[in-house]
Amino acid sequence: MRPGPGLPHACAGAAVLAVLLYAAWPAAAPERTVVVGHDNYFAFVKATPSAQAAPPAPAAVAGARRDAAVPAAVDAPPSPTALAQMEAEVRTLRQQGADEQAVYRLRAQRVNAQLAAQLAERELAETAWQQRVQAYRAERARVAGRGDDTPGQRAATLAQLRAERFDQEELARLEASDTPGVPVLKQD
Known about the structure:
Helix content is 68%, strand content 0%.
């Protein structure tokens, strides 16, 4: 993709899609019971979901073949392709002026309600993050535009501003998003 006016929006869309895909995968992973201690190995194996699953009865297999035309269960983990298609539909809905309830209903139809709620929560968190970053960048530009401060004073003011608005994890994310240009790989 060539640099242009739409590049930041395309990158932001890709980042949101990556966050939404990441949000879907942990929710789809089966929960496992962890038993501490070497003596309890067999108890651990018995507690895993794969060990508890019994083979399907022949009648159930025949019924499954007959019901193959029925769409897959909503509780089945969605594929990344299905999530990407769903999020494309969400973008289309939003461009058409749909509210958050319509977006939630669409997501709940495609995936289970818990995952739809998690996607909405992650999207809200990403929107809040982007607003905080934009406010920080505006304040940073205001501080950099003041001509009466020395470079040391400006650096101290910016460090204080970052410390007030972001925690340690967020600072790393902020610094990564503020790095201009192409990433440079460092070799030891």
